[in-house]
Amino acid sequence: MITCAKTATLSNCTHSVGYDVIISADPVSAQTIPFYDGDVYVSLSETHSQHSISVYTDSGWTNWDPRRPTPVSFMGVVAYPAPCNSQGLKYVASEEEFRQVSEGALADTSTLAYLIARDSGLGGPDSSTPRPRKRGRAGTAQTKGLILSVSRKTIERLDKGKAKETDAVTEDLETYTGSQEMDIYVGHHREEKGGYRRLLTASQLPPPTTAGWLSWNAHHVVSLVPRTCRKDAEVTAFMSRSLKASEINHHYPMLIDLTLHGQPLKVLHHKIRQTLARGTAVLLHGWEPERAMEFNMKDIAEIRPLLSQTIKWQDANIRARTFERSPSSRSYGDYIVEGTLQDFVRASTDANSCSNRLDLPTLVPEVPHFLRGILDDRSALIITGTEAYVSTKGESTKGDCSGLNGPQLMHCDTWRSCAWDIITHGGFLTYPHHDATGFLTYSYVRAGAKLWGYIHLDNVDEFDSQDVSARWRNYYKHPMATETYDKNVIVGTVLLEKGAVLIQPPGANHMVYTPVHTVMSGGHFLTYETLHLTEMALTFDFGLDHKGEHQNATNSLHPGTLRKVYRMAIALPVLVLERPQFPKRSIIALASIVSTNPRSFSIDDYKEDVCLKAKDALARELGGERARALMIMNKVMKKWHINDPWKEMRKGLWNDPGSLEDLTFLVGV
């Protein structure tokens, strides 16, 4: 048995559809493994007249009649298999095109079966088409397998039109391992026919027989279709048909590309800040981590403190079973598995395993040097690092408790969110969401690759924050947006590999497909220019504009966020000495967050943390910092004649940071 991955470009589409051609001596009824719509099965017989062709459609095999149009749905795209004198079978876009192509084409199934086999590379090394990949039907790259091929003598006779019923097929017993003539790409890529690169790891073998190939035409790569369940396959196929995110400017640009080299850091910082402030992501090329690594136990052990550490991860196979329930009854916590990091990495060699470990925190991150100048939450904590605010009455002034020499207590999440590693098995799909509690995120790949899908609303009034919020609520009405992932949205994709850093603004809605085993590092942060987006994300996630109902738009929460926001407000009287101007609407957003009761941002309902009591030491310190921050922000709001910053933020274009305003009047406050 052999399998050959194929793609077909339809006349009514801007993208290709992918399918597999499976050639075997066994009848199609003998196959028990899953296939996908559009796959073609050629059963070769010792008797030429008994060759047969079947097409997989509507979750079953159908005998293909080359004289009648048979509709096949490729994840929502309908195509028709038509007879072809050169390659045996080709997919076309409509019944009319089927009739045009069929006119004058061969209609004999056995002859078409031969043509399909020859087009798939059974002509051997001297054939004009490449020899198919040699893969077993199941197991890993070390599995032995039986390969069917057409003998050279038979090919010559068939090409001359002399072959009849004899000598049509011979069985060649070929023993192979993962190192012989197999298209395996571990941590790197090789050029494929047509300039496409195949994204695949060895433990995913044998891919075409268990799933199928997916063409990402915008990036000229081919990946596996997720094999966990049909829903994962549908969503990933939807992503693959999208344009590059950098080519989409719907309401506002989705992403811009920047290059690290050739410009001063201050100029680069300004470009990044201004771009992120408008809700546009940045892909910065020209940086790689100092230490090169691959996805293996040895390399992962060198960046993580302990392989025997107990961790939790998301299991896509368990998640697939939750799709049998109604959308409203699903939860992110339904598919969490616990084990050691070693267990997780070892499971990547199992072709049936597909999991994702989010946010393994690290206190020794490799932060790209060009980012250090825009990590405003870190800078604010450093600037105010000697100031402490602890009050039993919830009141504080500058210098209160200064003898304590800085913060006394710190929620672990305040540090944990700063830097992390994410380790993911190939084939895992992360469903639509935005990163938690209004953070910006930077990410870079250490080993493997990620395919990001950014999501913009299609029809929406950008000047009406209530309309924007309502449409996102409708999109996220169920966890993971499994039923609405393609409703009223435009998606653009980003291929993230070694050599680039992806920086995304607060509240950027996205989904991610991991085509290969991948190690990615990154972190969350805040900037002054994007606080209006942070405020909007917090308002949405905690339902401040919708009866306090928590939304389904994020897959995690960070209780340390408010601490960073308060310190950013406290730092302003010192920061304005060197940086006098700030975007007005972003500063109003800072005042809105500070003035909102912290309990409104409570995650108690999620039961992720022990609830803080008002008299607890950490709660008193947070109360003191908030009081100091509120004093500063009230002075700014009074200067600008704004009584209710939260209501003020509900006005205007949602992604407008506002005009630059001088804040030097805060000096000495």
Descriptive account of the structure:
The model is unreliable at 123-194, 202-210 and 604-610 (pLDDT under 50). A hairpin with a 4-residue loop joins β12 and β13. By secondary structure, the chain is an alpha+beta fold. Helices cover 25% and strands 23% of the residues. The protein contains 17 helices and 31 strands.
Helix count? 17
Strand order of the largest sheet: 17-18-27-24-29-22-21-19-20
- First and last CA, distance: 78 Å
Q: Give the overall shape.
A: elongated
What's the pLDDT, averaged over the residues?
81
Low-confidence sequence ranges: 123-194, 202-210, 604-610
Question: Which structural class do the helices and strands define?
Answer: alpha+beta
Largest sheet: 9 strands, mixed
Helix percent band: 25-40%
Gyration radius, in Å: 29 Å
Number of strands: 31
Strand percentage lies at: 15-25%
